[in-house]
Write a structure and sequence with these properties.
397 residues, alpha/beta, 7-stranded mixed sheet, 5-stranded parallel sheet
Length: 397
Amino acid sequence: MYDYLIVGGGRAAVAAAEGIRELDSSGSILIVGAEAHLPYDRPPLSKQLWFGKKTVDEIFIHDAGHFESENIQLATSERVKEVRPAEKTVVTDRGRRENYGKLLLATGGTPRRLPISCAGLDGVIYYRTLDHYNALSRDPAGKSILVVGGGFIGSEIAAALSQHEARVTMVFPGRYLCERVFPESLARSIQIDFEERGIRILGGELLTSIARKGGGLVAQTQRGKRLDCDTIVVGVGIEPDILLATGAGLSVGNGIEVDERLESTVSGIYAAGDNASFPYQALGKRMRVEHWDNAVSQGKAAGRNMAGAGEPFTYMPYLYSDLFDFGYEAVGDVRSSLTTFADWEKENETGVVYYLARGRVRGVMLCNVWGKLDEARQLIRSGVDVNERDLRGAVRA
């Protein structure tokens, strides 16, 4: 019997254990993770590791000794396959049954799959894990690599590989890179920068088949292009891992639905991180956020509430990315389908992009502008009606 059982071995899981320990120094904790590694941070897999800013050893959140010193049991290479709320029991793929007092589902997400068959093909990587990084980073120079996806992960991986002298082609169905977030003029500018750096971009394309030929792979596109490559990296987003929640009778939609204290519709079971659909207080709507800062903050809050804090989650998590010389931080609702207004100091390089709905700021992107997240949060929380004149200099670069 564990007082606290955490399913998932990532950032949200570790943050939850830390949150528990802030209020309960002695309750028993078990973290069950499917990967063989100790818990690690994922952002460096497409960022710092590729540019020499971190080593693999530095991405692990804690060493084994830390978990031992905090009396946190850690089970790696083990997957929970069933949750039985009536019995307060989980069952793992090793046949182990464990009872719990409180349960957290921090299962994250699983890579979205292509709608074509490539099962069992060596060289096709649905990029997500440290093992994927280790495989892909093994001497990419001179190799022909096809990156499928034009969002955050696809763009970051393409940039990283090109810096390691791989010959990179990107294919995605949209018109421009990261077009679901960037306003069109910014998306165009980023895409031109990628192309000038030697990355071949095929927008408005879908793959129709992937096959092995000789020592490489051949992909065919909807428009009849044949793409020969050594490796295919797929980064087309993730689906929230809701399988355990569904089987346990929890309410699910776009993720596991939780209340303001991150508790699910089944008492004693919580969710946090990529898989949690939560009430985003500042925006007044339910959201699911797939970024590191959300995993840290939400995991910590869930852990504290499991230990009895009873605190509503009101934090506004931010996201960030680096694409060559263009770096940004963003907070709130940053969908390009909203009305956008850009206050540039240097067009498409340095400035602030505001995302508006019904005359109110719902999201802010800080482009090569740093240290201004709290100002951006305050503007969103204010909920005041604004116009373009109000937004010029509202968050200063």
